[in-house]
Amino acid sequence: MNIKTDALVIGAGPVGLFSVFELGIMGLKAHVVDNLDKIGGQCIELYPDKPIYDIPALPKCTGESLINNLLEQIKPFKTEFHLGERVQSINKNNNNWVVETNLGKKFETPNIIIAGGVGSFEPRKIPLEGVEKFDNTNLFYAVRNKEIFKNQSICIFGGGDSALDWAVDLSNICKKIYLVHRRDDFRAAQHTVSQMNEISKTGKIEVLTSFQPKELIGEKLIEKVRITNSNSNEDKLLKVDSVLAFFGLKMELGPIAEWGLNLDKKNIKVNAENFETNEKGIFAIGDICLYPGKLKLILSGFHEAALCAKSCFNRARPDEKYVFRFTTSSSEIQKRLGVKNDNK
Amino acid sequence: MPKVTYIEASGKKHEIQVDVGLSIMEGAVQNSVPGIDADCGGSCACATCHVYVDEQWTEKVPEITDAEKDMLDFAFEPKKNSRLSCQLILEDSHDGIVVNLPSKQG
Ligand SMILES: Cc1cc2nc3c(=O)[nH]c(=O)nc-3n(C[C@H](O)[C@H](O)[C@H](O)COP(=O)(O)OP(=O)(O)OC[C@H]3O[C@@H](n4cnc5c(N)ncnc54)[C@H](O)[C@@H]3O)c2cc1C
Ligand code: FES
């Protein structure tokens, strides 16, 4: 069954969130899909604690506080978020678009708003040629079901929180864990590093620093991993049942690149009047869009969200006339926001 | 204006005059040198501006910070002379600097 909605917002970054607000005050309902398992886009994924100084009328906030405020602002609209799902394909159905996610969920809508930033955050693959053939076998970039590692010998690559947290956690059920990291320092929380060092005394975890992956060996499954010491160039061969790699996230335009939209490198070309792409009813706003003079700033994305929402209204409510209103004085908007007007 | 030589993995050279105060990343992006993506726009948050600094210059560029070391873990095939070019701000003394580009970013 298709989920019918006035607009589908792709990307739960700051700009996608604000577009939900602009749609909401016009009485339009939106659903939001994001590939990440959390809301906030770059602000949360890349710099939750860092300060931002150029949000109009907010002298200082952080990535995290900005997102929290946006969530507070759109609360009245009770928006549904579909997290951990990537938007995959689109098809036309008369004046509507049918959008499908990688999990097979389908949306039918007159308006698609792509607020996809620099693309969806995807795990970075092991930097070796040909490793894709082990995807979905015994090479993992995330742990979904830890039971499969029971009694296994596994190799974990990485030196951050994910790598170390899992090394410590899985040491309870694995036979042996090799933790391989490029250098001697770890990026993870100090107490996790100490915990890991403590467990390594028992031999359950073997910490191999200054080593990098060189080759994954095996036919269908990885059987051995060859690693190489970056100081001595000496190789080491590890016999493993599974490999887990935590090389952080990278951003990829992914399936959106296949939708027939006018692209310029990783950006989608739009007109600067309503931020529509070359396809009617598909809009692109925020970091992902490109037009003469575009600035990749949050405030520019907010402006784009407001203008694009107006065109979404015309497509979602072809029989109604768009009326420009101030939030200060429109009782209709205030009703939608669930506020009582105290000024009267 | 310091001259920067960018050498692609294929061996192709680009010699470019870059303003003092700009980063080696910005010098590449503004002059359409291929091979530096710079997804995060220079905020040391993406590791897609990875370069190998020519051995003769490794001592002369700004010292590496912990944040950059952390980010470099995510670069494709990092080596001893790996740096994130958005963190390499050019000074007059860098005239003639040479950086090699990796075969791919991230
Ligand atoms: C370190 C740093 C500091 C910054 N400082 C500032 C600053 O001070 N001021 C400022 O204005 N800007 C700043 N920026 C830039 C600002 O963060 C971006 O302009 C802003 O995040 C763009 O918002 P967005 O909503 O367009 O995209 P994003 O925040 O990138 O969010 C896009 C979301 O879309 C999702 N997505 C993409 N494709 C798909 C798909 N196919 N399916 C499902 N989901 C998908 C992604 O997973 C992501 O969560 C900074 C950026 C960085 C990295
Ligand atoms: S441009 Fe992203 S880390 Fe340098």
Question: Keyphrases for this structure?
Answer:
heterodimer; A: alpha/beta; FAD/NAD(P)-binding domain; 2 domains; five-stranded parallel sheet; 28% strand; B: 106 residues; alpha+beta; five-stranded mixed sheet; 5 strands; 13% helix; 20% strand; globular; binds flavin-adenine dinucleotide; binds FE2/S2 (inorganic) cluster
Structure description:
- The complex is a heterodimer of chains A (344) and B (106).
- With 344 residues, chain A is of the alpha/beta class.
- Chain A folds into two domains: 2-121 and 250-336, FAD/NAD(P)-binding domain (3-Layer(bba) Sandwich); 125-247, FAD/NAD(P)-binding domain.
- Chain A contains seven helices and 24 strands.
- Chain A has helices spanning 14-25, 41-45, 63-74, 161-170, 190-200, 298-316, 331-337; strands at residues 3-4, 7-10, 30-34, 51-52, 61-62, 80-83, 87-93, 96-101, 106-109, 112-114, 120-123, 139-140, 153-157, 176-181, 205-209, 211-217, 224-229, 235-239, 242-245, 249-252, 263-264, 267-269, 282-284, 289-290.
- Chain A has a five-stranded parallel β-sheet with strand order 6-3-2-10-23. In chain A, strands 12-19-13-14-15 form a five-stranded parallel β-sheet.
- Chain A is elongated.
- The model of chain A has no long low-confidence stretch (mean pLDDT 94).
- With 106 residues, chain B is α+β, with helices and mostly antiparallel strands.
- Chain B has one domain: Beta-grasp domain (Ubiquitin-like (UB roll), Roll), CATH 3.10.20.30.
- Chain B contains two helices and five strands; from the N terminus they run E-E-H-E-H-E-E.
- A five-stranded mixed β-sheet of chain B has the order 2-1-5-3-4.
- In chain B, 42% of the residues are buried.
- The model of chain B has no long low-confidence stretch (mean pLDDT 93).
- Classes of the chains: A alpha/beta (344), B alpha+beta (106).
- At the A-B interface, loops of A face helix 2 of B.
- The structure holds flavin-adenine dinucleotide and FE2/S2 (inorganic) cluster.
- Flavin-adenine dinucleotide sits between chains A (10-16, 33-36, 41-43, 46-47, 50, 52, 54, 86-87, 115-121, 254-256, 286-287, 296-299, 301) and B (40, 43, 45).
